Amino acid sequence: MKIPIQNLYYLLCYAWDKLEERDLVAVSATDQTSLLELLTQVLVKGSSRLFKQGMVHTYEPEQVTLPTIRGKLLFTESLQKNEFRYGRAVCEIDQYTPNHAVHQILKSTFRRLLKLKTSPFQSSVRHLYTRMQGIDEIRLTDRVFRQTALPRTQLPYRFLLNVCELIHKNLLVDEATGQYQFQDFWRDEKQMAGLFEAFVRNFYRYELPQWRVRRETIHWQLKANETDQTLLPLMQTDLTLERDDRKIIIDTKYYADTFQRRFETRKIHSPHLYQLFAYLKNQPTSATGILLYPTVTESVSATFTDQSHQIRVHTLNLNQHWRGIRQELVAFVH
């Protein structure tokens, strides 16, 4: 399925809970910019803005050998290095420095972008890279991104770190040539499934403030002793909307084909329907369930009802002007 660059950028801004960053770059609706160019431009402009405000410094622990004891004495290290014999000690002191994980990730990402055969905005990237003197480069891994925590004073960095992580996950090394190549993540169903879910949830949070929007843990309406209850699987919705006496449970799915095929006949994916039906059947009151897919080759809108519940299947066309996407999403819950 084809998604315009402008819409991909808006999806990312909603999914990352950084809607205010939509205007950071002027994304052309004509789709002339590649995804890598867009991400690089966002990284360059966002970093330049932060550097103009002044690079954030934090206190980072550093091991130093001193003639006097300062900070925390590292007794074992001092013994191993035989420093006491010469009237010195190994200490750990806090240094006020910009050399912390956030800037290390940014600099290391700039370095990887410079290794691209055709790096967009190469001069701007190189300029920012050279400005980060005294900041170490690190090996970027999934674990680095998971473990990097931001103090409240560094919240503006979160959006840039999300961009760095997306580049990291999709910047691959060609083993034959050693060159870096960027794969468009929108072709990866697993990545896009998580993005699509987060986008829809945060869209409703921002655009429909009159609704309570959340992920909900649903409890089985089955009678059993305490031991047997622990055997039941967890049920957690992608998205639940509540307002007054209305409740809508939305399950988002991102597939290359909206339907499964059986003898050339279209059928809803069975596990998707069973899962949503279980959510509804374990509600104490009536509710509406929606299976939401991106439009692949055709738009779909189907409704099924029983005595107390309604299930709807909708597709969202992501290959249209953003106003159309917004109108479709709002219409689904009205």
Task: Provide the descriptors you would attach to this structure in a database record.
334 residues, globular, 38% helix, single chain, alpha+beta, 6-stranded mixed β-sheet, 3-stranded antiparallel β-sheet, Trna Endonuclease, Chain: A, domain 1
Which stretches of 5+ consecutive residues score pLDDT under 50? Answer: none
Distance between the termini: 27 Å
What is the string of SSEs from the N terminus onward? HHEEHEHHHHEEHEEHEEEEEHEEEH
Number of helices, counting only DSSP H or I runs of 4 residues or more: 11
The top level CATH class name of the largest domain: Alpha Beta
Q: What's the CATH architecture name of the largest domain?
A: 3-Layer(aba) Sandwich
The CATH topology of the largest domain, please? Answer: Trna Endonuclease, Chain: A, domain 1
Rg from Cα:
26 Å
Classification by helices and strands:
alpha+beta
What is the percentage of strand-forming residues?
15-25%
Largest sheet: 6 strands, mixed
The tally of beta strands, per DSSP, is 15
Number of domains: 3
Helix content: 25-40%
Strand order of the largest sheet: 6-9-10-13-15-14
Task: Write down the overall geometry.
Answer: globular
Average pLDDT, all residues: 86
